[in-house]
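Hey, can you fold this?
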Amino acid sequence: MAGIIEVMVERGLLSAAELKKIKPSGRERESLHRLAIRTGLVSEEDFLVLAAEMLKLGQISELPTDYDITPFTEISPLFLEEHRCFPLGGTEALAVIVNDPYDHLVTETFKQLFPGRRIELLLAREEKIFGWIREHFLAAATDADDLETDAPAGVFLGDDVDHLRDLASEAPIIKLVNQFLTKAVEDGASDIHIEPQAENLQVRFRVDGVLREHATPPKNIQSSIISRVKIMARMDIAERRLPQDGRIRIKISGKDIDLRVSCLPTVYGESVVMRILDRNSISFSLGSLGFPEAERRRFEEMIHLPYGIILVTGPTGSGKTTTLYAALNTINAIDKKIITIEDPVEYELNGINQVQVNSKAGLGFSNGLRSIVRQDPDVILIGEIRDRETADIAIQSALTGHLVFSTLHTNDAAGAVTRMVEIGVEGYLLSSSLVGIMAQRLVRVLCPSCKEAFIPAPALVERLQLPFKVSNEEPIYRPKGCKECAFSGFRGRVGIFELLPVTDAVRGLILESQSSLLLREHAVKNGMTLLREDGWAKVRAGITSLEEVVRVSGA
């Protein structure tokens, strides 16, 4: 059977010469018939008539007066706009109005959302579908009253900027941005990425450490969406050539949410990332982080010491800050003065003095630390040790009776010693001040509603050197996917840990300038649990999967 492009040529709706012009366009994501319509070579009306004839589909121009949106409230209006479709309803079959019946993702998506229902397509003009989406779905999206922001309107100069501000203040754009924020918080996302592409605007959420596509709004509203975010974050919307940072304080579903906003110019426009800081979703309790019982007891002993340095290591996004906040929360008492210096302050903790690094004003880690030491603290948290000056002040603080917490970017606990020596810290000072090092990662937790038991192949068990046997009586679990976990197979994250106590023997090895490999081997012989071993324990307990442990630990 001939395709629609061939029939267009046969019937004279599209000439062979015109077809030849659009074929080498390089627009791989756009079908030829959509390109022919968009460039005006074929009218939308001719396409709909021909598609209705070839596929034996009906057309619709008006919705029923009693249209009910209730069964479809979970569907993103952005998906409907991107794919030019609209769910109509029905009892036995589900009728879906489309502008392009050859967009098979529409049918597959509705089959997945409504399993067991037969999908029937109806055709309508694009402007009709967009009008119905605005009338029913965007009107039902979160109203501006549900999201309260303290951002002022701001003062801007220039006709073009005024036009952008007007566009960003229109109700559909406000509702669209509000829908992003509300959906991201509901999904438990840690970040929202708004990324300009050549043909559209890509919106992704980072959920449980993994990016998921949320929507691809049309290119023509890119500037309006980004300008709306910049206005909320008190950024200068006239500045589009330099990076900017901002902050939004907002209330969503009764919860106070902080958003850290970063704006970066790219070749296709400004890329925006919003870090969602929801204190209600974070537990600052050591018992809730996933520590093995023995490691938790040892760590608690360390954080109750009167002086010394405790380091937490791991890559960005491995939960280091949460662990340190939980440690501070545990020891916070009326008889202790705790001061932190962070870049940035992520969560505000009651009873703790938190200092925000401000490089533009000349307040960095090193000079900020000098002032902190003069504030008579008992406990100091340094967001990150980045250079020798900061490291030297931290060590001097520890040697003069302060308990110091900080972070480093190293792969394992023993590697932190090597990193500190590379920065320029003398071995004898490090061995005298260091009391413990902990490496950590975050693994995704299997969805309890759909995880399934399985027995891995013997070759895989042998290759990974699993320290336990897997059988039908004691299986392990893998992700499957269901509505509860948005078909990802995972819900939430938990830590895996590697705790290296700095004993007298370890201090001797540091003084001898021994390699991190020898330090690691010594610690393992004396009972240290490696990251992957803690991961395997959580696999055996049905908490996470083999793939997750391999992904984060490189096992």
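Oh, and this one too while you're at it.
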Amino acid sequence: MFRIKKLDIFIIRQFALLFVGTFFISLFVLMMQMVWKFIDMLIGKGLSMEVLAQFFGYMSLMLVPQALPLAILLSSLITFGNLGESSELTAIKSAGISLMQTFRSLIVTSVAIALISFYFQNNVGPEANMKMAQLMISMKQKSPELEIPEGIFYDGIPSSNLYVQKKDLETGKLYGIMIYRMTGSYEDQAIILADSGMLQSTADKKHLKLSLWSGEWFENMQSQELANSAAVPYRRESFTAKQIVLDYDADFNLTDANALSANAKGKSIKQIHKDIDSLSAVYDSIGRSYLAEARNRIYLIPHSTKADSLAAIKAGHTAAFNVDSVYAKSSPDQRRHASSVAFNKVQEQLSDLEFKALITSDGDKLIRQHKIEAIRKFITALICIIFFFIGAPLGAIIRKGGLGVPVIISVLVFIFYYILENTGYRMSRGGMWPIWFGMSLAPVVLIPLAAFFTYKANNDSMVFNIDFYRNLGMKLMGLRQKRHVSGKEVIINDPDYTKDAEQLEAITAQTREYEKAHRLKTPPNVVKTFFRYEPDHHIEAISEQLEAVINDLANTRDKAVLSQLNHYPVLAVKAHTRPFERQWMNTVAAIVVPVGLFLYLRMWRFRLRLSKDLHTIQRTNDNIVKIINNIHTNK
């Protein structure tokens, strides 16, 4: 039965204080990232403090589900990093409490936070998202003179399309202006060209004043009063300076929320499922109507009547009608006419199919977005729990508190998660991947990672032991550490020089015999290397004897002996015999030719190095034996 203990309360207190702080830090960072994204909407628009407060308020509510996982990751990592750094975690384990028992209170807390995240996404987030979208559209429509882009048509001004070739941000002047105005209908449109101009709001914020210089005005005069007049089809005016007043309310007005009904992010799961059924029914009916239209369409064949075509189809004799023979008997004019008619029909059908494909693809995309948002609400809540099982074990393994190493690790983990989540989202939204695969990409990758860290932390494994990885890398690259033997301040037993000298002479004889028997400078035998491995215990015995002598002579006070001891190499006693310990791995390596060739050359390199090491051992043995003899002579 689960009972709250003092240890649970202690850990929850440590975690809660850090969680509150890291949550607001994470929320602030995410908000700043979004502010920089929409900075052009906020600056220079003359927005009131009330509107800005609403903007940041809705933004913070939207970003709460994203800030919660990052806060859990960082706070759990710092919590257990502090416990490990202050040896409190060691004391907890020494009391017989396992790491999973230490985690249990925070596991319950993480589940509760995940439920809060789901509640925000399903109830608070959609409403905030809709309000945020309304504000963004409304802010974008306010002061349109700041929103006019370069090189494309801007339709933010009612009844007008404005094209600007270049815009000077410092002076506000527009260059290369082209304006299409439609005040009533197509017949009343006007085209205005100008070399430069400036768009400004009037003092009452109800109109836009467009000042134009060096341009021309083309206006269609086919209105009702001139409908019967063919003498003046249009009016052309050249001007050096002209001002146009456009009706436009530049005050801040909130956009109608009905225009955002297709926004899947602004809906709860219940609304999403309801809208998916409605959208599926609508687009299924469209698809059925397109299919029925395609089945009922009859393509007429030249020189045949519609009745003949229908009769041939009903009788099943369509295959007996040879279009090529009819085409060959036709005159050149008839052939050209038939080809032209066929080409026009094909172009018409292609345009029709492209238009229908556009409609159906938009429907599919809209349905995919609703399904993605429904799954994302559960995935984001699940990430809160996954991030706990990544952050807490990492803190117990690293045992570093504060805001240094934990922040770096948290940022790296969150970036890795963001890449996976964003990749899966974009691929699912575009229809390249199935929705379930794209949206589950991040948790499927992170869950094994969390399980691995939890297992390693529970078993006190040094996953981030730098010395281990350095030694492993040096081993893979064939590198080795140099021997370092220094004089001892306190020596209990002096070395047995006579016995050590005898053993060194015996080792010298053994190395010469070994080198002669194994011919280390010749290439290794391929069959023995990969298929018939024989262990080399001889060199292992030589290495053990040499290390025993070095350990004994390390107790000497003679500096010359200590200097010579550092000349001994550290022997690799297995790398020159076979690539791997297991026979099946050697066989697989031989079959995979590039890998086997690399391992064969690597082993040959180790044989050459062993030959060089044996010569170094022989030379060092002779030098130490001479020094020992001099010590005995001086005595």
